[in-house]
Amino acid sequence: MKVTIDVDRCQGHGRCYEVAPDVFTDDDRGRGEVIKADVPVEFEAQVLLAVSACPEKAITVS
Amino acid sequence: MADYGQGGAPSAMSPEAEAQIKAWTYERSNDPRGYYERLRAKCPVDFETHQSAANGAGGITTAAVLSRADIEEVLRNTDIFSSEMPIMGSQEPVIPLGVDPPLHSMYRRVLDPLFSPKKMAVLQPKVADAVNEMIDSFIENGEVDFSEAIAVPLPCLMFLELLGLPGAELDEMVRWKDIMIRPEIVAGSAEAGMALQAQTAGEIYGRFGAEMEKRRNAPTDDLISYFMSATVEDGRNLTDSEILRILFLLLAAGLDTVTISLQAIFNYLATHPEAQQLIHDDPDQIDNVIEELLRWETPVQTLTRIAKVDTELSGCPIAAGTHMIAALPSGNVNEEYPETLTVDLTRGDKAHLSFGGGNHRCLGSHLARMELRTVLREWHKRIPFYSIKPGTDIEWVASTLRGIDYLPLVWTSEKG
């Protein structure tokens, strides 16, 4: 699984790095950043939670 | 943020119209999920809600936007839906709420880092201390009005802390935010409310202006001094007017919103023993509980935008100038998404719009979450099981900000 954040959609709700802290982190503005673009299999469930929790639909997995 | 009192001319409203608006608002506050379900059954865009009646007196068309997709469109598409409108007695647009991009983006680049999760984590121990001091003062009594003892003072105290103002100003702060948020209730009528609100807005600008003067030659470690030294992208400082309009908004938008969220969440928990048991057995679920209850209760009921051009939503024509009321409860709990119709306190993954969406996403959302989580953690450590005082009729405030002014809770004090 690969994951990206659309920086134009992200508004800094902060849900991704809260529900999937192993894959996302927050920048100085509180916006999400991907720290593991190639998602280790044990974190895939976390990432799917983040996709569902993001109010801006800014996270894409492939 | 608050559609109530925007636009329109209250003096042009008949007493009958005003009474009708009150009745509608009361109905919505008592049962927002049912209220919006009934509206959705008629049309995805509703032109006949109480806001229409309120604004209609001023010749303004109002449309309540009910489908999740349309709400998201209204909040995100700033090319078509503008935030530029007067609110809460302020003569000039408040910052950043009443400003569109690209200016809005410039302000948020300065403001976002001040309210980031990392900054809020630094403030968190002070919130925990304040909550515990409050609990100390009443735990032996076995009962308390949660609103008066915690929900109202806590966010106000933290606001004073952030701004570097003395805690002794708490009462003044509470009075100001009440007048900003629900002038019609403080003053007794919409008309008197508008006058009181405008007068109070002037007082607030004066008070913050005096604080800025104090700091001009002697900066302090607080948000006011930070704003005075901050530079925006072309290298200039924020003007005094910009700083005042930011401070005004922090006061108007940052206090009651946390208060009503605490009230809604504690009312739910106090009436759901199984939810208290869940938190008792697994305190790590508190974050999920809060997200789910913010979604379910949707404390801030509506956000407003103005259509800049003729457009349409769900096939309904929208004329330029229409006030668009994004009905957040209708986006959060909606039969289009059956799983949203029930509460599941442990899931925490249902994207909700309780902090808005798009580029105006609540600037204080990380502050709000930190405060809510801290109150729930500290309270439940010391008072794990509690209920509404028997014989109490819970009365929701009939306003855009849906809270409970009187929320008496009881518990067995030896548990403390």
Notes on the structure:
The complex is a heterodimer of chains A (about 60) and B (about 425). In chain A, strand 2 and strand 3 form a beta hairpin. Chain A is an alpha+beta fold and about 60 residues long. In chain A, the strands form two sheets. A two-stranded antiparallel sheet of chain A has the order 1-4. Chain A has a two-stranded antiparallel ribbon with strand order 2-3. Chain A is about 25% helix and about 20% strand. Chain B is an alpha+beta fold. Chain B has 18 helices and ten strands. Chain B has helices at about 15-30, 30-40, 50-55, 70-75, 105-110, 115-140, 145-150, 155-165, 170-180, 185, 190-215, 225-230, 240-255, 255-270, 275-280, 285-295, 330, 365-380, and strands at about 45, 60-65, 80, 145, 300-305, 310-315, 315-320, 325, 385-390, 410. A five-stranded mixed beta sheet of chain B has the order 1-2-8-5-3, sandwiched between helices. A three-stranded antiparallel beta sheet of chain B has the order 4-10-9. Chain B has a two-stranded antiparallel sheet with strand order 6-7. In chain B, strand 6 and strand 7 (about 315-320) form a beta hairpin. Chain B starts with 14 loop residues before the first helix and ends in a 6-residue tail after the last strand.
